[in-house]
Amino acid sequence: MKLILFGPPGAGKGTQAEKVSSHYNIPHLSTGNIFRYNIKNETELGKKVKSILDAGELVPDETVVDLVVDELQDKKYDNGYILDGFPRTIPQAEALDKYLSSKGTAIDLFLNLEVPEQELIDRILSRADGRSDDTPEKIKTRLAVYHKQTAPVLNYYKEQDKVQKIDGVGSINEIFERIKKALEKVK
Ligand code: AMP
After folding, report:
1. What DSSP state is assigned to residue 170?
2. Is the CB of 53 under 6 A from ligand 1?
3. Which residue in 139, 151, 161, 186 is deepest, having the highest Cβ count within 10 Å?
4. What distance lies between CA 40 and its chain's CA centroid?
C-alpha cells in the first residue's frame, strides 16, 4: 500500500500518518520530520535547510526529491509506505511518479485531508511542539506557499483518479476511522 497523505499545514497529516503507519504496519515518511531531525543534529543538510524552514518556505525540489528517492531505496519501504509532506510541488509529484514507474509501481491512493482555513490557523497556534515555524507570521507564509505551490498537486492526482477526500474536522479517532474506510478499497 503506497499512500500520500496530503493537506494544508495544520490539517493533521503527521498525526494521522502515524496512526496509519502503526495500524497497517507501513513506514511513515515525513520530509518535514527528516529536515527537523537534520536541523537539530546540525548536519550538512540541516544547515542548508534551516533558514528555509524557519521562513516557512519550501526546500528546493531537487534536494527534496534526492532525499526521498534515496530514502525509498531502504528495504523497509518494499511493502508500502505513507508519504506525509511530499510531494509538495508539481515537479516533485512528477519526479515521484517517474521514480515509481521506473520500479514498475505507482501510488495507490492520495488522501486529501480537508480542514477549513481558520481551523488550520487555530490548530497550529495551539500546537504544543514548539516548532519555529508555528508563529502567526510564518503560518501566513506557509498557507500562501501551500495555495500557490502545493495545492496544484491535488489536481495532478485528480487527473490520475487517485484522490480520496477525507473530512479532517473532528476528533483524531473520528478522522482516522474515515481514513480506514477509504483504505478498505485499496488492499
Ligand atoms: P511539514 O512538517 O511537512 O509541515 O514541513 C515543514 C517544512 O519543511 C516546510 O514548511 C518546508 O520548509 C519543509 N518541507 C517539508 N517537506 C517539503 C517538501 N516536500 N518540499 C519542500 N519543502 C518541504
Report:
1. S
2. yes
3. 139
4. 20
Span 121-160, pLDDT tens digits:
999 998 877 788 988 899 999 999 999 999 999 999 999 9
12 lines ligand 1 (CB under 6 A): no
Q: Between 31-40 and 44-55, two packed helices, what is the crossing angle to 10 degrees?
A: 120
- CA-closest residue to ligand 1 atom 11: 58
| pLDDT tens digits for range 12-48 | 999 999 999 999 999 999 999 999 999 999 999 999 9
Residue 54 in grid coordinates = 524557519
Give phi and psi for 84, each to the nearest 5. -130, 115
Residue to mutate (ligand 1; options 33, 35, 39; most atoms within 8 A of CB): 35
- Work out the number of other CB atoms within 10 angstroms of the CB of residue 44: 8
Nearest-atom index, ligand 1, CA of 60: 21
DSSP state at residue 60: P
Q: Is 6 in the pocket of ligand 1 (CB under 6 A)?
A: no
- CB-neighbour burial class of residue 75 (10 A; exposed 0-12, middle 13-18, buried 19+): exposed
